[in-house]
Amino acid sequence: xxxxxxxxxxxxIAGRCLAGLAWAVTGVRPIWDGCGPGQRQRIYYANHTxxxxxxxxxxxxxxxxxxxxxxxxxxxxxxxxxxxxxVADHLLRTVLVERNWVERxxxxxxxxxxxxxxxxxxxxxxxxxRNMTDERLLRFKSGLFNLVAARPDIELIxxxxxxxxRVMPKGAVLPVPFLCRVVFGPPxxxxxxxxxxxxxxxxxxxxxxxxxxETDLQDE
Amino acid sequence: xxxxxxxxxxxxVVLTSASAIAAFLSWRSPKPLSSTLQNLNVRIKAWWIMIxxxxxxxxxxxxxxxxxxxxxxxxxxxxxxxxxxxxHADRWTLLSMFIVIIPVQYYLIWIDWYGLYxxxxxxxxxxxxxxxxxxxxxxxxxxERVSEQQWGIMLSVYCISxxxxxxxLPIPAYQSRGLLLIAFLIVTVQGSDVLQYIFGxxxxxxxxxxxxxxxxxxxxxxxxxxxxxxLGAALxxxxxxxxxxxxxxxxxxxxxxxxxxxxxxxxxRDRGVKDWGHMIEGHGGMMDRADSLVFAAPVFFHVVRYxxx
Lengths: 220, 309
Description:
With 220 residues, chain A is of the alpha/beta class.
């Protein structure tokens, strides 16, 4: 599953190349609005509209931080063909979880916790899938809550990814250059014994607060 | 010493003294620095980067300058596109703007095909782009989307490409020195930006268009244009012009540059943004630096072409 702590040389090079490519196309810049680039172990949670999303977050992190960070992605998608499988297992650092309730052999939470316990930071898309609707954010799945309840010491950083749906929407082969930004918000505070629903709503609101005014005609 | 060396040495001297003065002022004044002083530091830093990029391009000659401005077009178009209304159906049009129109336009300048590069965008792309958009079938806000695309490609590709096109003008007794003409245009137009800013800060009272840009005043404009014309006259040795002609052309380029800045401000107001982008940290985007050149370059090009070739 490609989740051992130290990234391989190939993963390191691929990470750097992808970050460079993302910068060339989108000129991506991090906006640190409430937290800074840091050394602490973190869970970055973000809105999800495009396959390019986690690459954009990668591109915003410093090399050292990037090397300890892995994106959480759906095993059903990334293991659905030899090319995807190679990309997910050997080129990128991904923590693959099984999204299918009925047939799954491994609990996604334990997979993610194992990665956290190896010292990795995670990029998580709590909507669970790419958002294709006109809603700004879908309902959050409980995974985020379960992780934070089990490992409350890890910093939880909301990240709003801007414009990536325009650069590379679902089904697009080539990216169209638009300027992108990633806004990193203040760490989310979890109080022990917080209710799941209340916490998830709080996490969702914290992320929405980072979103700027929408200029796209799609919303009208 | 060649004119190019003299020019770049001169620029280095001017910028070094500007940096020294700004550093001295920043050192003397109370912290945190006033916004005027911060802005000054930021502008000087942007200037260093600009001069460095242009000198490297000049080292590679014609090809280097064409590549540099193709890149300027790319960055400017990306900033522009980000501010416009786009829909999923526009993807192919937008993508072709970046990967077809920019390379073709600059290639046509490279091979010096004036008959095509002067009409490729205003005729062929003008018609092809809405056709491509219509073929995709999405008619919602069609007119807005198509108009915004046209504007973007004209401003950020067609107009900017007239800077390197200056190299191709066959001016008698001025062969193979076209790079200097580019340097002349850039120095006077960018210089006028700074001079208008300084005159405006020192003497500015009567605003020209407070709704569009509160910092533009008549005093700044007149002072900036007159002093930039004087700068242009002083740089006549770079050009095929007499000192008087050089001054007049510099003045004309600066008036156009002023209008470019005004239009760019109006677009930013309309979209509710302060800067075009974030090219260089804290310095705004490419268009924030190139807006005056966008308007000045095609007019300067055609006046010189009409009167000197």
